[in-house]
Amino acid sequence: MKRVYLALIFSFIFCQIIAQQVALTKEQIIGMTPEWKGDRLPDGRPNVPDKFLQRLKNISLEEAWGILRNAGYNNQFEGDWMVLKPEKVLVGRALTVQYLPKRTDFDKLIREKGKAEGRIGNFNSWPIDMLKPGDIYVADSYGKIVDGTLIGDNLGNSIYAKSKNGVIFYGSVRDAEGLEKIDGFNAWVKGYDPSYIQEMMLGGINVPIRIGRATVLPGDAILAKKGGVVFIPAHLVEDVVLNAEFIALRDQFGHQRLREGKYTPGEIDQQWSDPIKKDFLSWLDQNTSKLPMTRQELDEFMKKRTW
User: Which residues form the signal peptide (predicted)?
Assistant: First the structure.
């Protein structure tokens, strides 16, 4: 099966060269994300439910990172960002974009194909036209700062109008003061510069991209905080949320019992004994108002959970 998915990716690259395809098709995105079994957006990206995206906001980067590492996903975090509004959290679904240093022949082909597809304006506005509510425009512009500014405040306003969200650019933006004034908009970037975009071209939309240390696929769920960004494969979002919420409940219980002096730190910090497990289950029954998930979700999770 892996050969099939690799073949799809290679066929896309071939299509880029021969047919100058601007974005992956719905079928190609479905083929690239086969482990997602839920609903999909019209373009084929996994449609991670809003309820899990909202609950992601309460999860720490370390918790999400640790759960993904335990699942074998070791390259889903990138740090060292300039954040427009560091006090705000950003969550959403990735619409991915690849930018490349300009090569005249290929740039001409992509622009001609974009025009034939009815795309309007410069290529850095094409992904914006595709945004849906809850999307995050995630772009690899290879860390270019000077002459690499993908948006200013005009495009920033358009992005927020369409997505009610923000951007993550492995590159730069301009008009930082104007962007800061857009209520609800946020940005994780590698730098700010007053220059305009030059000597760059579009490589593809909704394609696999690299953001620093991380590989990002279209439809990945994103958790962005001041400490960095975690890109969560869509099929793992529910597991990440429920595991992190369960760990938080265990911590609340353990801290309370330590304050009460009922158990020693050694008892709480090691594998719990059967009496502590029983006490914890009783504590859950007595504190249903503290549950971040539904009781049905918790009961289903507990069936699979190993202590």
Answer: 1-19
Domain total in the chain: 2
Same domain membership, residue 98 and residue 65: yes
**pTM score, two decimals?**
0.88
158 and 254, same structural domain? no
Say if residue 85 is in the same domain as residue 120. yes
pLDDT tens, position by position, 209-225: 999 999 999 999 999 99
Q: What is the CATH number of the domain that holds 141?
A: 3.50.30.40
269 contacts: CB under 8 Å, gap ≥ 6:
none
